[in-house]
TrEMBL record:
UniProt-recorded name of the protein: SDR family oxidoreductase
InterPro entries on file: DECR2-like, NAD(P)-bd_dom_sf, SDR_fam
Family: Belongs to the short-chain dehydrogenases/reductases (SDR) family.
PANTHER family xref list: PEROXISOMAL 2,4-DIENOYL-COA REDUCTASE (PTHR43296), PEROXISOMAL 2,4-DIENOYL-COA REDUCTASE [(3E)-ENOYL-COA-PRODUCING] (PTHR43296:SF2)
GO terms of molecular function: 2,4-dienoyl-CoA reductase (NADPH) activity
Record-level GO BP terms: fatty acid catabolic process
Length: 269
């Protein structure tokens, strides 16, 4: 059951960065279904045009622009065109990211820098550039972080450092921009099925099974789970929520004890 009406975001203007595929595309599609006009960006002109066309083909309002979030001017140009076509922007999602598995001892300076540039600097660019185009008071900004932002993970020093930075950036902007009626939150998704992120982290059925065994809910989430969380945070129902890192993660960060199977307690031995 969808607790939000189809018109929950009627008249709202939404900008989603990193939305040619996966979680962010689903957020854009979900918001369009709920009545918003959506503007989406990613690096690849063909992929982003096709993503925007897929939303528009279903009868919703969507436009797409190619922009690399590492370039402030490119992000600003996309926001400016969005503002010109749709008017002041109500909701911004910053979700562009890159990740790969690499031991820190083998990670080049450019490999580390590339992920920090896309995830952390890119998020600063998207949120900072959007500031002048926002419909305030009432604007809602959402960064997409990850469990890596609070829990260290092997072979992901680059992504962990970048996502930790996003968490702190989100809280700082929430403090600075709150007085203007701008809310800034982050969503921390757990492992999400059928995404590029999980194809990179759990490439085989065996590694997928090991991931699932470590989740309190024992299963991957869906892109719609994250889109529903984003819909709540973007809506007026979340009008008093700001500076929050909202976990929609199947309990993947709960303590080690929660991962113990009954037999591992060795009761009575
Ligand atoms: P995805 O499909 O690869 O999405 C990443 C998006 O970012 C793509 O649209 C990509 O499009 C875009 N992008 C990459 N570099 C960019 C750049 N420099 N400038 C602009 N756009 C760029 O991956 P996903 O798995 O759905 O992940 C989406 C978000 O959720 C990420 O922030 C990720 O960290 C987070 N997350 C995912 C999971 C998961 O289980 N998948 C778990 C926790 C957090 P182009 O290639 O067209 O540029
Ligand atoms: N292991 C170690 N280093 C790697 C790597 C890997 N698997 N993949 C890339 N790198 C390094 C490269 O070697 C390069 O460093 P170098 O110049 O010292 O050799 C550096 O990272 C940049 O690589 P490049 O391919 O030029 O970057 P890009 O900007 O074209 O692409 C990536 C960015 C690397 C993050 C790419 O994987 C990407 O586009 N990802 C987007 C999709 C994604 O990751 N989705 C999941 C989201 S969580």
């Amino acid at each position: 059951m969808d607790v939000f009406t189809e018109n929950a975001l009627a008249g709202k203007v939404v900008f989603v960065a990193g939305a040619s595929s996966g979680i962010n595309l689903e957020i854009a599609r979900h918001f369009a279904i709920h009545g918003a006009k959506v503007s989406i960006v990613s690096r690849d002109e063909t992929r982003i045009a096709s993503a925007a066309a897929s939303i528009a083909a279903a009868g919703y309002t969507a436009i797409g622009f190619a922009a690399d979030v590492r370039e402030f001017a490119a992000v600003d140009a996309a926001l400016q065109q969005t503002h010109a076509q749709f008017g002041p922007i109500d909701i911004v999602i910053s979700g562009a990211a890159g990740n790969f598995i690499a031991p820190a001892s083998e990670l080049s300076s450019n490999g580390f820098k590339t992920v920090v540039d896309i995830d952390l600097n890119g998020t600063f660019h998207v949120l900072r550039a959007s500031y002048r185009y926002l419909n305030r008071p009432g604007a809602s900004l959402i960064s997409i972080t990850a469990p890596q932002g609070t829990n260290p993970m092997m072979y992901q020093a680059h992504a962990c450092a970048a996502k930790a930075g996003i968490n702190m950036l989100t809280k700082c902007l929430a403090m600075e921009w709150g007085p203007e009626g701008i809310r800034v939150n982050a969503i921390s998704p757990g492992p999400i099925a059928d995404t590029e992120g999980m194809r990179r982290l759990a490439a085989t059925p065996e590694s997928e099974a090991r991931f699932k065994a470590r989740l309190a809910l024992r299963d991957y989430g869906t892109t719609k789970d994250i889109a529903d969380t984003a819909l709540f945070l973007a809506s007026d129902n979340a009008r008093y929520v700001t500076g929050a890192i909202v976990e929609c993660d199947g309990g993947c960060k709960l303590g080690d004890a929660s991962r113990m199977e009954a037999a591992e307690y060795a009761i009575g031995s």
